[in-house]
Design brief:
The protein is α+β, with helices and mostly antiparallel strands. The chain contains seven helices and four strands. The structure holds adenosine-3',5'-cyclic-monophosphate (CMP). Adenosine-3',5'-cyclic-monophosphate binds next to loops.
Length: 140
């Protein structure tokens, strides 16, 4: 087990429903620390850049439109095996397939409006953290 950092985004469907605190409680109850956090509105161009890896997917346009449609909360979570642990806490991408007790199952509305994003590997976590935060903003 190693201490890792991972990037989390609380998505527009969750900020619109005032769920930031409820989502953060899930992270903290599971032992992850929120060591950086900011609320912002992504431009369409920023959303396109962040999700560039999905550019060829059928849902890319809709995803970028949605992610730039309202406020998001970008966060750095830290803890033992934070990347995998966060993915466990979030649950499957599609809320309909997520385990009961996960964030997406309990709060998700659809595969697009699925409350949270989390990095899928330590390597991508590093890249995604740098997309949103400078070193000065991450307080361990
Ligand atoms: P996220 O973890 O943010 O990574 C990419 C996002 O694309 C994913 O969560 C979903 O919200 C979204 N996504 C994945 N598959 C689909 C799909 N089939 N239709 C619409 N959105 C999708």
């Amino acid at each position: 087990m190693s201490v890792q950092k991972t990037l989390s985004i609380i998505k527009p469907d969750a900020t619109a429903r005032n769920l930031t605190g409820s989502v953060n409680a899930r992270f903290e109850q599971a032992g992850l620390r929120i060591i950086a956090q900011k609320r912002l509105c992504l431009t369409r161009a920023q959303a396109e850049k962040f999700y560039e890896v999905h550019r060829e997917k059928a849902f890319y346009d809709s995803l970028c439109e949605y992610m730039s449609s309202g406020p998001v909360v970008a966060q750095v979570l830290c803890g033992d095996d934070a990347v995998a642990k966060n993915r466990e806490i979030m649950g499957a991408t599609n809320p309909a397939n997520a385990e009961i007790g996960t964030i997406r199952r309990d709060f998700g509305q659809s595969i697009e409006h699925n409350v949270v994003h989390g990095s899928d590997s330590p390597e991508n976590a590093e890249i995604e953290i740098q997309f949103f935060f400078s070193q000065l903003e991450i307080i361990e």
